[in-house]
């Protein structure tokens, strides 16, 4: 400070100097968290307080600067703090208190929201995994259903084929049975004919014996030689014809026997083939029905 602005120490000890407390209320204790925006809102109030403060200093101390005749401030108070009305300070403190509470609630809410989001992400991941497993199971189910349907169609075709083959085999066996019965009847008739033919030599033998008796009788009655020769020739001719007829019948009997033999052999081979084919079909079916690896 300049010497002109300094007060002499004896002036402070004078009795006519009356020290008075200013009427303006100044705050030595700073309020927590003074808000500049609120100060700017009440600039008129702050300016009025400064003006009253300057006038009271001038009236009470009568200290002026010799150059500009303005009161000189004395450093008798601590650093001046702006005045804030009680209602505004109370509102600010309340606001600050609620702001801290709101911040605490916000922090808690954010923590809770984080937990909820974490749980939601976990549930979404679980849902996604379950959906993927469900899709896999559905695909496996579709594959199994398709495989079952294919196996079912395959077994239906095999069953139809087996039934058709069995029916054809039964029809073939029935036909062969009917043909065999007819052939057996024909064979029985042929055997009866052969038996009749084989009985013929006994008759011929009896007839030959009777002819010999006739010849001996004719010779005993001393007939004419010419008649006897002619009769013997006729008898021999008849015997030759009978022998030829007997040979023809025997040949026919042998032919019938050969035909019967061939027919029986053919029937036997057909029956053997049917039995063989049936056993092969059963073997193929058994191989189809066996599981792989057996």
From TrEMBL:
It comes from Phascolarctos cinereus. Keywords: Coiled coil. It comes from the Eukaryota. The gene is LOC110223844. Residues 95-158, 243-277 form a coiled coil. This is Centrosome-associated protein CEP250-like.
